[in-house]
Amino acid sequence: MRHDAILFSNLKPREFAQEVVGKTNKVDLDNPFYIVDIDDVLYKVDLWRKSIPRAKPFYAVKCNDNPIVLEVLAGLGLGFDCASIAEIETMVSLGVHPSRIIYAHPQKHISYLHRSQELGVDLMTFDCVEELYKIKEHHPYARLVLRLKVDNKKALFAMGDKFGCSEDEALHLLQLAKDLDLTIVGVCFHVGSTNEDPGAFSGAIAAARRTFDAGRDMGFDLRLLDIGGGYPGEKGFEPVFLKTADIINAGLDKHFPESYGVNIISEPGTFFVASAFTIYTKIIGKRMSESYDDTKPKEHMYYVNESVYKSFVVSLFSDDPVQPESLKDVDGPLHPSIVWGITCDGLDKIKGTCKLPDMAVSDWIYFENMGAYTLTINSQFNGFPTADIHYRASKIVEITAGALERVFRHRGLLEEFADVECIPAEKAAAELRAALCAFDDMHSFMRLAGVVRANVVWTPGKTSGTQLDDLNEPSW
Fold it and tell me: What's this model's pTM, rounded to 2 decimal places?
């Protein structure tokens, strides 16, 4: 896999991909590649904050651990939902403060508990008696979040059979935690991935409130509600997401009004990355299906340089999510087609019967909405390489510089800079933006733009280890 630097371009992703293909010899460009639209990620962050303002997002790293995406999200101040020590160490290495990480796996390795304690990550989930005893022995000062079970039959990937406890069981776990002198700070739930029922959040929030009341009655200072993941993020997602947001906001206002004194977080993954990633696959072979029925057209069968064992694992579960499109503009009729993966496995079918124009070997087919659970579920079966990655953005400098300016202003550093230079604050802000925009190397820029991540801020005459983050001293 090759990662290119972020290129600033006002071309749409499809036009950008056509330019990538056009600049490369057809024979040499054998790898599939992604175009990552950073603007799309920024749009999602802004939309989330406007739509569900009370729930601070803790991005689910398991969904897509692309390093540039993680840098952008870290620089914009998000928290992170990590399920393993590898994910935790990745985020800590990016300078993310441990207080911005929740270890959101109810079943944890003993060695992982030791390592998370060493790294200062103490916020973690649990859902059973055995895990409480394990935590008591190996991470006794952890701040625990009790995970409730959600039975949601309308989630493609339901979680209730594997994780979570019933409300009745929660009472028993609260009492046991009390007896073990463990610290429980909150309650969490997950309605399931690819959730098709926004209403599932209503019942889960109500159940969480009942558990909160029981826990507070037992003497626990419960101040954190984690409403989990399960949010749509594919193109055209807005109507469903906004309906979901309305249901969540209504549930929070009813069961967790601000007067109740609770901090709220969430664990979106698909929401932030699904539509930002488009994959472009090259046709390496073509054949016509055999048909003994003259009344039915023959199917065009295309073999591309990708696989269900790489980016298209979702095709093993459902044929609907992926929709192939031709990269080049092709006139003429559409034909019944099948898109096969590159491996020798007969089950490696990326897309069953679909409609595509007549295409040739070395043409390109692309698939949108490929950012969720593609890069992180990817094997080396048959030895084929992983897709390369190209990044494009049109406004990341402006937005990230603006975000950094707000951080500087919030911490008083902008005013300090203005005082030292004897200039008005607004002029100082303009100079800060100009200085940031002067960076032509994206990695250097992200190091500066992500001061939260880099653990370094500018102060007159020296650097400081101050972490610019409003969750460094949590109240829960």
Answer: 0.83
